[in-house]
Amino acid sequence: MPSEIATIQIEVPILETKRLILREPRNADWEAVRAFSMSDRSRHVGGPFNEWQAWSSLVSVAGHWAIRGYGMWTVEDKATGGVTGRIGIINHIDWPEPELGWQIFEGFEGKGLAYEAAMAARNHAQGSMGMGPLISQIAHDNTRSRRLAERMGAVIESEGEVRGTPCLIYRHPAGVA
């Protein structure tokens, strides 16, 4: 019998935009995360992954919130309840500083949803969480992500690498838009 029991409390602020809800990860997100993670769409975040790695990706989001106090939100379409992707602030052990990152799932690109969600996440991080100007680490050939960062006002600050893969480090502007 344990001498005591620890409780882990994870607080994930729920953000809403005109068309989206940015919320905590849920078990019900599994199929959408699995489909993204095991597809070629995940190539810019280290994939495609096998099923075990995809599951680890889903549950590690909750762990990031628990340990760092911030993380990726699941992005849900208000109209349909569908999971459109994941967007948020991440800072892995080998990264230079917190990053605003995004993963847009198949069928949801080209509708302005990524911009809407990323702006909400960035504004919350800089306004409510007191974070400074964030970075986004983007692969050279990830044209859509580069365009999104630039649309958000981010500029290339330097070159870097994520787990051995060269990338561009974009710096987002300070302040809430």
From TrEMBL:
Gene3D superfamilies: 3.40.630.30. Pfam families: Acetyltransf_3. It comes from the Bacteria. InterPro entries: Acyl_CoA_acyltransferase, GNAT_dom, N-acetyltransferase. The keyword rRNA-binding does not apply. One of its GO terms (molecular function) is acyltransferase activity, transferring groups other than amino-acyl groups. Keywords: Transferase. PANTHER family: GNAT FAMILY, PUTATIVE (AFU_ORTHOLOGUE AFUA_3G00765)-RELATED-RELATED, N-ACETYLTRANSFERASE DOMAIN-CONTAINING PROTEIN. This is Protein N-acetyltransferase, RimJ/RimL family.
